[in-house]
């Protein structure tokens, strides 16, 4: 199996090393794992592509490259430059340091990398490690992802629906819970949740020179979401798996809109 991996934390991120281990075991002895990851951190860039300026790409080792762009850029660079059109069987993005559950999925460069894989007609999975008090003192905060990642990816490859041939095909968003590997309860399909009464905002600061800057500031990450959704599952010790699609249409509202505007 040929696998293309990327992330949004950057080429030197510890989560990418975890993903490399996962991908190498999935690919097997005769397989190939190709890495094309951002040269610098690209957290929060979502599905951004560098449409208006070029990006430099550099080889870091055998089948390992860094590109000065977003995760989606890296997938494009991998497919059409590094791999020279030799299509991978799977795109993996992550393992992100922090959760991409709930509304975070909309901002996530990790999810954006998997999304681009799906738009290119490939099977794609985003993987993220939820962090919290129970992971803070672990020698390896990625312990849950490292120990359970291979089983999750294999389960999806073997048993999940992939909608091959659909215009907007499915991809999967996986979040490992904020607990040690031994505390993981199992795998749970879950809808994307929404953390109420918390949202991104800005916090102003002044530099030593007196200039005013704004920092983007996130809300509490352990606010619960509705039962059956990803954040709720993660906080209860489950690995959440959320099927996603790039089609943003609210299909359940089309008929009503036609009646109102017709």
Record the SSE blueprint.
Layout: E1 2-6, H1 14-27, E2 32-38, E3 57-61, E4 64-67, H2 71-82, E5 90-97, H3 104-107, H4 109-119, E6 124-129, H5 133-136, H6 143-159, E7 171-176, E8 186-189, E9 201-206, E10 212-217, H7 230-235, E11 238-244, H8 254-261
Parallel strand pairs: 1-2, 1-5, 2-4, 5-6, 6-7, 8-11
Antiparallel strand pairs: 3-4, 7-11, 9-10
Helix pairs in contact: 1-6, 2-4
Number of domains: 1
**Overall pLDDT, averaged?**
97
Question: Major sheet: size, sense and barrel closure?
Answer: 9 strands, mixed
- Class by SSE composition: alpha/beta
The third-level CATH topology is Stationary-phase Survival Protein Sure Homolog, Chain: A
Radius of gyration: 19 Å
Share in β-strands: 15-25%
What is the H-and-E element order? EHEEEHEHHEHHEEEEHEH
Keywords: Cytoplasm, Hydrolase, Metal-binding, Nucleotide-binding
Pfam families: SurE
Function: Nucleotidase that shows phosphatase activity on nucleoside 5'-monophosphates.
Enzyme class: hydrolase
What does this structure look like?
- This protein is α/β, with parallel strands linked by helices.
- 29% of the residues lie in helices and 24% in strands.
- It is built from eight helices and eleven strands.
- The chain has helices at 14-27, 71-82, 104-107, 109-119, 133-136, 143-159, 230-235, 254-261; strands at residues 2-6, 32-38, 57-61, 64-67, 90-97, 124-129, 171-176, 186-189, 201-206, 212-217, 238-244.
- The strands form two sheets. A nine-stranded mixed β-sheet has the order 3-4-2-1-5-6-7-11-8, with helices on both faces.
- Strand 1, helix 1 (14-27) and strand 2 (32-38) form a beta-alpha-beta unit.
């Amino acid at each position: 199996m040929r696998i293309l991996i990327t992330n949004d934390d950057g080429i030197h991120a510890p989560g990418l090393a975890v993903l490399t281990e996962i991908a190498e075991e999935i690919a097997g002895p005769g397989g190939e794992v190709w890495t094309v990851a951002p040269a610098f951190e690209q957290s929060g860039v979502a599905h951004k592509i560098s449409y208006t300026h070029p990006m430099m790409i550099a080889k870091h080792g055998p089948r390992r490259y860094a590109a000065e762009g977003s995760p989606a850029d890296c997938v494009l660079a991998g497919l059409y430059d590094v791999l020279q059109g030799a299509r991978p069987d799977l795109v993996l993005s992550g393992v992100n340091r922090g959760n991409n559950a709930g509304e975070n999925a909309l901002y996530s460069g990790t999810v954006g990398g998997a999304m681009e894989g799906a738009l290119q007609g490939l099977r794609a999975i985003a993987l993220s490690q939820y962090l919290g008090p129970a992971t803070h003192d672990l020698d390896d905060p990625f312990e849950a992802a490292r120990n359970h990642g291979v089983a999750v990816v294999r389960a999806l490859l073997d048993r999940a629906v992939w909608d091959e041939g659909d215009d907007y095909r499915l991809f999967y968003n996986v979040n490992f819970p904020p607990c040690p590997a031994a505390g993981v309860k199992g795998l749970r399909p879950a809808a994307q949740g929404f953390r109420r009464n918390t949202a991104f905002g800005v916090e102003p600061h002044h530099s030593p020179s007196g200039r005013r800057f704004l920092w983007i500031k996130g809300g509490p990450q352990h606010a619960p979401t509705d039962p059956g959704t990803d954040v709720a599952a993660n906080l209860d010790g489950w690995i959440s798996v959320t099927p996603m699609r790039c089609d943003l249409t609210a299909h359940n509202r089309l008929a009503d809109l036609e009646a109102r505007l017709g």
